[in-house]
Specification:
By secondary structure, the chain is of the alpha/beta class. The chain has 17 helices and 21 strands. 36% of the residues lie in helices and 22% in strands. Helix 2 links the parallel strand 2 and strand 3. The longest helix is centred in the first third of the chain and has 18 residues. InterPro entries: Pyr_Knase, Pyrv/PenolPyrv_kinase-like_dom, Pyrv_kinase-like_dom_sf, Pyrv_Knase-like_insert_dom_sf, Pyrv_Knase_AS, Pyrv_Knase_brl, Pyrv_Knase_C, Pyrv_Knase_C_sf.
Length: 478
Amino acid sequence: MRRSRKVKILATLGPASSEEATIRKLFEAGADVFRINMSHADHDLMRSLVRRIRNVERELGRPIGILADLQGPKLRVGKFKDTKVSLTPGQTFTLDDQDVPGDNTRVFLPHPEILQSVEPGHRLLIDDGRLTLVAEAADGKSVRTRVVSGTGISDRKGVSLPDTTLGVSALTEKDRKDLDAVLQEEIDWVALSFIQRPEDLAEVRKIARGRVGLLSKIEKPQAVARLDEIIELSDALMVARGDLGVEMPLEAVPGIQKQITRAARRAGKPVVVATQMLESMITAPVPTRAEVSDVATAVFEGADAIMLSAESAAGQYPVEAVATMARIAEKVERDPTYPGIIYAQRSEPEATGADAISLAARQIAETLRLSAIITYTASGTTGLRAARERPQTPIITLSPIVETARRLSIVWGLHCVVTEDARDLDDMVDRACNIAFREGFAKPGDRVIITAGVPLRTPGATNMLRIAYIGTDGLTGI
């Protein structure tokens, strides 16, 4: 199943898409990676979804990636005597540690870390910013605020803190239990929510011990401020525009999206653009023109992947949403302006032999109009380097390790194939030519370029380029 686009599609599974038959339809429509949202999935459901995805994978013979998205800390106010209260801009309103029902002067905040961290002048955004408070005084047990905008608040509404760095881990007790369960299954990526600082990744990395890739969701201004450090410790990034648009001015989000996307590309780390990409397709069979432009912008920007949330999880048209996203991406990548935009955003390679080999492979493939760039990889690093170059030439990534192929399914342009390890250099070339022919990338007489590490099976030692012809039988490299 060869995709006719290079950007990848993540589809979130949920009530509208949890059956195995629907998962297969989503994959056939264009989904490359499936997201399981641990905010809504218990461990039994998570295991069932993994089993169904792997059944589809075996049936179709293509590696499929799975991402488990941890909930992260959910900060909420307590309850009110009458469920909700009215407030007036300019009035005083207090959040405190007293576990009793609130009124229009105060409410319980069951998060001592907030009470201890908020300082005068910090903003507290309630209910996705519908109510804005500014702290005037704080003593560790209560925060006295002034109402800036908004006229009401009700039970258990969420709290966002754009100006405050909390001195607690981004990993909650629920997240730890979910992570332990996830690591027992055939899951490839774990997404970490509400990352504030590089240290938030340390605990998860220590627990995971390399068994999954770590994807940091950038949705807080504190994370944007330390983006380079977070990228260095992450395996992938997500532009989580929903919460980012609550904690930062909406008009700032498009620029931040470009900043994150370009920084991740420079570092050679996969980057996903997410949230409300085709939101209207939750209830409508076609998207708005603005949504089409939004998806197209992410593709033009060179994002590795674009994501559907409620559209595929709970919408009325999950398969149609995936198919629509795939058609938009295909059309953008065929646009005559697309190669020039992608080329202009390329960054200089790192000063390593492996990066130089990847750059040379792209230049040779484009100059000689070769049919494919074929990379052998065990760890996935060679595939990431090839994708970082954003070549016009298709990339085939071969790996003897199914987990590597699954993990790379989120990466721009990589057509991943699981194959037996090559016995020697000649077998490697024959195998590469065979697969390029079999997968529909080349025909007899075409040429391909192969990159690998010699000696074989040496991790991270990409040091070889080889141009090979597809033989007249379509199978033998000459």
